[in-house]
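Sample pair:
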Amino acid sequence: MIEIESLTKRYGPTTVVDGVSMSIARGSITVIVGTSGSGKSTLLRMINKLIEPTSGRVLIDGRDTASTPAHLLRRKIGYVIQGHGLFPHRSVAENIATVPRLLGWDAARIRARVDELLQIFQLDPRECAAKFPYQLSGGQQQRVGVARALAAGPAVLLMDEPFGALDPIIRTKAQDDLLDIQRRFGTTVVLVTHDMDEAFRLGERVAVMSQGRMLQYDTPTVLLTHPIDPFVSRLTGSSDRALRLLSLIKAGEACEPGSAEGPPVRADQSLCDVLSDLLWRGASSVPVLKSDGSPAGRLTIGGILARGKPV
């Protein structure tokens, strides 16, 4: 879907992004992490030509983006920034309709798309469409920002620290919304964050950057169990590595045959959450149920702890 080949950006003698190459699969969520100044946001912005690379290239579906005028490319790529970036003088409906209007959609099609997206994001069109951004909560503004980015049905959605300004509860809900929307539309998402918990929760693959270079690009499990160097190890959390690893494994993947007493857990719950519940209740095992409510097996504290060790 997206191929980044030896992408480099220099400002005078300073190299901000240094020869980065990566392949991003269609319909996946890829997260780019790193400390401040690592080049992660610059890399993201070179994908839609908000920043022109010094050298290297970006291909989307095999087509070099250098051959497409920037304004036309951006109409096909959704873009979300921290703090939503809504136009304050436009209503919610007008904000969401921005790109469809640029593409020449008729009024009825635009209105139907605005209503569809508001409903998907659990915002009543009758109450919210005519409101202005300042009349919405922070979480609602962020949802409208994502809806605007998705309005024209882009195949690619770029997100630069999209949830950084939200409080922890709203931030978790926004992450859940993104996962649901991505599953619904199959959008290819590339997201930048400095939050490793967010990266591991959302990313199918995670790229770690430092001083403009890509240090490691792999699944969260590999980053936790086989970090390539001490920097990646520190960034991914050397002190709580086992708990982070358990947070990536679902109960249904790890349960064993057998039964157990007590309140059951869902197969889609993480081992970290199940372990926390067992310790809180003073129980040694718990039954696991499939999504249809049928028994999947059981989990024990010993079995969970064994899954928290690197292979």
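The longest helix spans residues 168-185.
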